[in-house]
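Let us practice reading a record.
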Amino acid sequence: MLHTKLRAVSEGQARLESLRRMLMLGGPKEEDFLRATRLASHLFNAPIAYVSIIDGQSQVMMSPMGMRPQTLPREQSMCQQVVELGSLILCQDARADARFSGAYNVVNPPYVRSYMGQPVRNAEGHLIGVLCVADPAANRFSEEDGKLLVDLAFLLEATIALRYLSFSHEQALNLASRAGEAALTDALTGVLNRRGILDMANHAYARCRHENRSFSLALLDLDHFKQINDSHGHLAGDAVLKEAARRLQGALRTGDIVGRWGGEEFLVVFPGLAPEMLQDVGAKLVHAVTGEVAWQGETLPLSASAGLVGVSHLHDVFNEETLLDAADQALYLAKERGRGRAVVYPGV
């Protein structure tokens, strides 16, 4: 039971992070929601239609037809039931349905009785809202109407995905540079920081899934970095980190993404790179980073170890925990085998 609860919390946090990325990196526009609610109202001859975006605490109603915009606590929202179920709900009489009888819009104007809600997912596969139609009269919608609402929600999802996936890596970096204290870049090295690289990894994964391409990543760790800090001081360590980031950036293909994962570790994302290419690519990365660094009249040693993982068949949602754990295991093997080398995880 505890495991189930923890998994639900983790999935909820992932959904909220995905919603944040969607709104920041090419989210849908107001007219996208308005087009969907206008079509829904006309198609079902429904006096009420809206898209609800569900965040951590509340429902935000977007482009409503037949109602004023409103924000409700999640527990008072009819759409919360759809989010929890994860699929279409068709209710013929909300007053007689225990799931909805106490909902705000059932006991207050517009006194909803008939209700249909279909989940809306973003390009990363996460449920971020619900497309809804409603009526103060009971028994207004049929099972065939429910099928049509599913189709309409699919079209809205396609629009959301198109806007998100057309948002380029370069645009994300430009956004990061303007974001002030919420920046996605690492202040020392100039590459993406941990949050930034995770955002872009999710974005790249969604695009690869949409385009039916492979997806790969690498964890790269600077060898014996602690000895450099201990022997020469943290300023020397900073110089080595900056040079490693510079060399990494110079070794990447167009479209590859690098970020500082933490400490002396870097995460590199390879959109579209097939798993069978990883050994060669990993070896090139290690070779590109390796070499002495000049610092205040001294030469500092720099080498790296890398763990890589790739997938050809992508799931609906980027499972960062599984892929990063695989890359970390491969990195451990690279260090165990003498460092200064790349190891590819055998399969996920």
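A brief commentary: The chain has eleven helices and 13 strands.
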